[in-house]
Automatic annotation (TrEMBL):
InterPro entries: DUF1272. The lineage of its organism: Bacteria, Pseudomonadati, Pseudomonadota, Alphaproteobacteria, Sphingomonadales. This is DUF1272 domain-containing protein. Pfam families: DUF1272.
Length: 74
């Protein structure tokens, strides 16, 4: 199951699990659309391809909550 990290690792923008706009690599490094575009859809951490992160329906968030651990080091 995806961790659904709460923010962009590059700029800190919030990325709620139930909304589109997050991009992830195979290691679940997470970026907003603007940062993903800025790095040409290549993860700056591992070199993997950044793809659209799926959303998690609100009703599933209760049973399977998104991560609350922030990765942005700002």
């Amino acid at each position: 199951m995806l961790e659904m990290r709460p923010d962009c690792e590059r700029c800190g923008t919030g990325l709620p699990a139930q909304l589109p706009g997050g991009f992830i690599c195979s290691f679940e490094c997470t970026f907003c659309a603007a940062c993903s575009e800025a790095v040409d859809d290549v993860c700056p951490n591992c070199g993997g391809e950044l793809l659209d992160r799926p959303t998690r329906p609100r009703e599933m968030l209760e049973q399977y909550p998104a991560s609350t651990q922030h990765k942005f080091k700002g």
